[in-house]
């Protein structure tokens, strides 16, 4: 028996069957990928064709952007030769074109040991037989990648098993498959204000699969699968100004730009969690499956110069062209222009931000993913300055040429002095309901803009719960505030009038997200959350840990295999789980010699605004102090209530937070007098807040009181030094 190329590629014969385990391993396989003797190859596929303007699925807008984002980070950060990156766009992607391109670009050229990255953005389809388990694993599921959604022809869909077969036919074992598509069986064009990437139950079921004969488990073999979601779940894309992109691809490229080692999984989960959970809860849970359970990706071409982007070219005068993409969409939209960045040469070794070889540049304009920066003159107003003068930065053409390829790291963030919400009106509202809602939201101070869902990014969605009942939803369509039947019924304006507490809480979280800088802060601090377990052999369990990576003088990590106090590290988790009725413990550490002020604030799993105030004056950590709260003998932080998600922020500052402390005293007691009770009367514990927004606004005032003047900014903005504050989002799910 003989096979031609097409028969071999489509037959699935190279796909091994069996099972493979998923367990933690610390083996670092990434170093083998750094070899200069191997060529790096990529195949980037942008699909997303819909089934016409009148169909239930229109064409996706963000797949081409995904391809661009991945191509830029692979060439700029991982040293891929542009000639070895091939791809297809939505207008040209067909099964036959893909087969030919795969064969010519990869199968005929890839050699043993060559790293290969294949990425697909578009619609996914999932048509499980009736006998399929409700929550199948990748080894059980047989989803399809939708090239076109117009009709059920076999050439419109690529079975994932066929693509895996192709990849396993390559001579190399270093294969990474990235999928940014959904596999929900439902068909919804929008998830709230976000466009869904699930094509429903499209695609043919293989002949050997039927309800009485479930599919055989398929092995991924040597392939590392990095997927935006799991079988049966959705995936979404978000609008970024005039562009759209997959939320998961955004998170992936952010982590690849910032990461300075081969181990990517933990960074990817941090970025994905911050983008996905506030919008979708647990409806989109990314997946990472790899041989030997390695958390590694390729080795960056320079291991110590991760950042928010890189210099891509020179412009006449004192200007640079750059890509700055490792920022949250909100920061990119509201706090990128006028912010300042340090350049780090590609050959830099070490993370000392005080190097005099690094020059300081200010963002002047942004177009798409490209930013223009100009050199600024060094002043002496803050601790964080480490820039050369503009004369030094532009002292010669040879020195300017060396800046191309340099990493860019955020050093000063320009934040607006005022911020408000954008509300999207759901598609299911009638015209008169939209008119009434627009009028009602226009009278609320926390709201600045009302749009129709799908017209742009939004902070929340207003829509129907059911006939004549309304509610506020996350941007991804999850209910935000449980309303009683009487509160959610009646006229639109009446219901919106009851949403003030929820809108204020949303605005507070928006401010904290705008300030979030866990990847760029220069404060020397760390935090661990540990759960005390019960039973015959109770052991502490590490829930979450973070340590600043850009503090100029990082401490020696004497326990690389543990989370501290002998607590074993768990594999990186997308959304840490916390058991109800158990005690949480917070371990804080200050690496520096300076006092750090702060607290924990946010929204707990009951949907209540809360604060963990450990010191009455918010003088949280003395220099070199380690603080454990509460003590193991005093379990004050007991997790109870709903099985839902808690969203906290750790706030730290080099400066006293007097206004924040005053606002906390007011909101805890409900006393809004000029001289409210101080926090002295409250022992260290988690306390409910009447309104989170006044506390966060006071925090913003405390931070902006120490703004810097290293570069000009408009009157309605202010520059903050990343050496002065930390806003760190922390999320966990109560189960």
UniProtKB/TrEMBL annotation:
Region (Disordered) location: 194-216
Pfam families the UniProt entry points to: Peptidase_C14
Keyword Ribosomal protein: no
Keywords: Membrane
Compositionally biased residues, Pro residues: 204-214
A GO MF term: cysteine-type endopeptidase activity
Domain spans labelled Peptidase C14 caspase: 40-295
Entry-linked InterPro entries: Pept_C14_caspase (IPR011600), TAT_signal (IPR006311), UCP_caspase_lke (IPR011189)
GO BP term, example: proteolysis
Record flagged with keyword Membrane: yes
GO cellular component, one term: cytoplasm
PROSITE patterns, sorted: TAT
Segments forming a coiled coil: none
Name this protein carries in UniProt: Sll0148 protein
